[in-house]
Write a structure and sequence with these properties.
single chain; 2 domains; two-stranded antiparallel sheet; 2 strands
Length: 243
């Protein structure tokens, strides 16, 4: 029979769960799969309701995987999923660890790092899955995603190496490489963003006719120039797709 976990272990694990689980509570945008949404929300509520029991659970690692996967699968807006999972990664990295005063607390610090690294790696794995489900709007968006998320993977790989999680480094590298290849291949043929200038604010549909001879593309111009409040008054200096 396994020895009971000391209070300081339970408390530290509960603190981490209390910081990270709430990030999964709200769906990142409209719900596409109500069944999966309800299932992962129930699991979040169960773990959050008794974080000490969750710390003692033999299935905590698997539960974190199920929550992150449910968070992605349940949502219709995969760009919002990516942003939400990036918040999980940033929050995991920001957690304050136990001061390693003596062998016992040093081991506890490592336990905390391993749990936080698990959240981080699982979130990044689901980020890569979400990326494969979106259609980049332009070469520039694909490149920006590749660079931003590539840096997140680089940091995660370094953090895993620092605490000796060498078995975790390989799947992180593989996920990063697959995501990078995908974004390069899908981004290469896409239109690029170019700057435009007008003498006066013009409606988006006028600009769409001027640039593309297609007024139906006014919405994408408005979306690309988020600083404006109304499509009837586009900024005089903005960005448009090259074709």
């Amino acid at each position: 029979m396994a020895a009971p976990l000391p209070d300081y272990v339970l408390d530290a694990t509960a603190r981490i769960l209390s910081a990270l689980l709430p990030l999964f509570e709200r769906a990142p945008g409209p719900v596409a799969n109500p069944t999966r949404f309800s299932a992962y929300r129930r699991l979040v509520a169960e773990l959050k309701g008794d974080t000490r029991a969750a710390a003692r659970s033999g299935t905590l690692a698997e539960d974190v995987v199920a929550i992150a996967e449910g968070y992605r699968v349940a949502a219709s807006d995969q760009r919002a999923v990516i942003r939400g999972l990036e918040r999980v990664v940033v929050t995991a990295r920001a957690q304050i660890l136990t001061e390693p005063r003596g062998p016992t607390l040093t081991r506890q610090r490592l336990n905390e790092q391993i749990l936080l690294m698990h959240f981080e790696a699982v979130a990044l794995g689901e980020v890569a899955n979400a990326v494969s489900a979106i259609a980049p709007r332009s070469y520039d968006e694909a490149r920006a995603l590749r660079q931003r998320l590539g840096r997140a993977f680089d940091v995660a790989i370094d953090r895993a190496s620092d605490i000796g999680l060498f078995d975790l480094m390989r799947p992180l590298r593989e996920a990063q490489a697959a995501m990078t290849r995908d974004l390069i291949e899908r981004g290469r043929p896409l239109a690029r963003l170019v700057a435009y200038e007008t003498g006066v604010p013009l409606p988006a549909n006028v600009l769409a006719h001027r640039f593309y001879q297609d007024g139906s593309r006014a919405g994408e111009l408005f979306a690309e120039n988020g600083a404006t409040d109304h499509p009837s008054f586009m900024p005089m200096a903005g960005r448009a797709y090259s074709r």
